[in-house]
Specification:
Blueprint (H helix, E strand, L loop, with lengths): L3 H10 L6 H10 L3 H8 L4 H8 L3 H8 L6 H11 L9
Length: 89
């Protein structure tokens, strides 16, 4: 057991953690990781698209794509405030 303050410090440094709710949506509900993260963060497709400077339909296509380019994954992850590694579920 460690002091709670130490736990919080270690948790903050572990920037690639994935919340259980996101993992569950991807594995149990067969939802794409981008969608699971977006919904977990309470964002709409239009809001994420605006952050990326693209249209909502263009983002919807990317969100449902099974193979995104590395640069696209990194841009979307940054727009969501997560790391690209957190999209690997």
């Amino acid at each position: 057991m460690i002091p709670y303050g130490d736990y919080l410090t270690q948790f903050a440094q572990a920037g690639n953690l994935i919340p259980h709710a996101v993992v569950r949506r991807v594995l149990a509900d067969d939802v794409p990781p981008l969608r699971a993260w977006r919904e977990h963060l309470g964002l709409t497709q239009a809001e994420v698209a605006a952050r990326l400077g693209i249209s909502q339909p263009a983002y919807a296509q990317q969100e449902n794509s099974e193979r995104l380019r590395k640069t696209s994954r990194e841009r979307i992850a940054a727009a969501l405030g997560i790391t690209a590694a957190q999209l690997d579920i």
